[in-house]
Design goal:
It contains 14 helices and 17 strands. It is α/β, with parallel strands linked by helices and about 450 residues long. It has three domains: about 170 residues, NAD(P)-binding Rossmann-like Domain (Rossmann fold, 3-Layer(aba) Sandwich); about 160 residues, Dihydrodipicolinate Reductase, domain 2; about 80 residues, Alpha-Beta Plaits (2-Layer Sandwich). The strands form three sheets. A six-stranded parallel sheet has the order 3-2-1-4-5-6, with helices on both faces. A six-stranded mixed sheet has the order 8-10-9-7-11-12. Strands 13, 14, 15, 16 and 17 form a five-stranded antiparallel sheet that branches. A hairpin with a 3-residue loop joins strand 11 and strand 12. Helix 13 packs antiparallel against helix 14. The protein is globular. The chain binds L-homoserine (HSE). The site of L-homoserine has 11 residues, from helix 7.
């Protein structure tokens, strides 16, 4: 089948992340869509600017209208941000019969109603997963995964920059301006960072989520909006002492009276999972009447994370371009002929870290025997704690060890060797430990 040809508007943080993903995962993407995706043209501000990605096989232009008017382009991916110029380009693309993918929350929040109406008339798709919460597929979750439910409320940490600032203030006592500058450097912040810290960006995203959750038209101008600029390290510290974390939260709820739609700093009990979402990460808690509460978590900003959502939208649109039923969303996500039979690893071959609890004779030299065995099996220790004996009549002490990652077979062999020692007084307790950070 012929490749689908796409054109990009913008090659900044998200544009570059999108191109990198398309280049790196070409085979997987073709396996999922049944068709190749070819980037035909990218509109950039400065054609001569040095770039971190390989654009040798792609034509660049400084004229964005060359993309939206190109007769061979099937899908236009709008990643320039802003709203008025972006709107003009998107409306032209739609008028030209092109499908549109955008990461532009300001565009959708402000002009979505108009854009969708035009797209409906032209029979094209406008997809915008990347506009809300970066890489988290929250729009898909609300629109498809939770389609059986009446959504009761949703609450989200949906501005990564604000969350990054609050986290750094809480954990390192850093100054607001200093952390904001770092967020800008890392490519998290909006072109105008006041959008982040004054709640505008979160309000754009909340307006979109609210419409999808409750089936209402977009009403960005009705979002009640406060940012984090008035939050001081002192507030953060007092809230902590009382058992709360302060988060910038977007909240929408359907009541008998109407819909609440607000973004503002919020104390959240620290035992809630969402209260522990830190740094640039985003999370959205959605309460459905049938499913109950569900939580979606992931990177809310950054080139590759947001590019992940852009490319997922691309894959969706490419699938819908093909009327062949074999190309509808496949049951196992991949097309039948792209399913592969990879081996499933036995437990002995997995690699993980471990928590070990040992009951040891309380005498000199025992710890040395244990560490020698671990060393012989190439197991590196991350932490050791020796607990006081629980009562003075027992000769045993409890030793807790955390190890770095090791192949399970090596750990099993080391445990067998340890249990053979006279000084090891009970079976060694082994629990796998995953840091879940990479
Ligand atoms: N400036 C946004 C944020 C980027 O910090 O969350 C992702 O929309």
């Amino acid at each position: 089948m012929k490749p689908v040809k796409i054109g990009l508007l913008g090659l900044g943080t998200v544009g570059s992340g999108t191109v990198q993903i398309l280049q790196r995962n070409t085979k997987e993407i073709a396996g999922r869509t049944g068709r190749a995706i070819e980037i035909l043209l990218i509109a950039v501000r400065d054609i001569n600017r040095p770039r971190s990605i390989d654009t040798r096989s792609i034509e660049l232009t400084q004229d964005p209208y060359a993309v939206v008017n190109h007769p061979d382009i099937d899908i236009v991916v709008e990643l320039i941000g802003g709203d008025t110029f972006a709107k003009d380009l998107v409306m032209k693309a739609i008028a030209n019969g092109k499908h549109v993918i955008t990461a532009n929350k300001a565009l959708i929040a402000n002009y979505g109603n108009e854009i969708f109406e035009q797209a409906q008339q032209q029979g094209v798709v406008v997809a915008f997963e990347a506009a809300v919460a970066g890489g988290i597929p929250i729009i898909k979750a609300l629109r498809e995964g939770l389609a059986a439910n009446q959504i009761e409320w949703l609450a989200g940490i949906i501005n990564g920059t604000s969350n990054f600032i609050l986290t750094e203030m809480k954990e390192k006592g850093r100054e607001f301006a200093d952390v904001l500058a770092e967020a800008q450097q890392l490519g998290y912040a909006e072109a105008d960072p006041t959008f982040d810290v004054e709640g505008v960006d979160a309000a754009h995203k909340l307006a979109i989520l609210t419409s999808i959750a409750f089936g209402v038209t977009l009403k960005f101008d009705k979002v009640a909006m406060e940012g984090i600029t008035d939050i001081t390290p002192l507030d953060v510290s007092y809230a902590e002492q009382l058992g709360y974390h302060i988060k910038h939260l977007g909240f929408a709820r359907k009541t008998q009276q109407g819909i609440e739609m607000r973004v503002h700093p919020t104390l959240i009990p620290r035992q809630r999972l969402i209260a522990n979402v830190d740094g640039v990460m985003n999370a959205i808690l959605v309460k459905g009447d049938a499913v109950g509460p569900t939580l979606y978590y992931g990177a809310g900003a950054g080139g590759k994370a947001t590019g992940s959502a852009v490319v997922a939208d691309l894959i969706d649109v490419v699938r819908t371009l093909t009327s062949d039923p074999d190309n509808r969303v496949p049951h196992l996500a991949f097309q039948a002929d792209a399913l592969v039979d990879l081996p499933i690893l036995p437990l002995t071959q997995i690699e993980t870290a471990y928590y070990l609890r040992l009951s040891l004779l309380d005498k000199a030299g025992v710890l040395a025997e244990i560490t020698q065995i671990l060393g012989q099996h190439h197991i590196s220790i991350e932490a050791v704690i020796q607990k006081e004996p629980s009562n003075e009549n027992t000769p045993a002490v409890t030793m807790i060890m955390l190890t770095h990652k090791v192949i399970e077979q090596h750990m099993n062999q080391a445990i067998v060797a340890m249990e053979r020692l006279d000084s090891v007084m009970a079976k060694v307790v082994k629990i796998r430990l995953e840091h879940l950070n990479k």
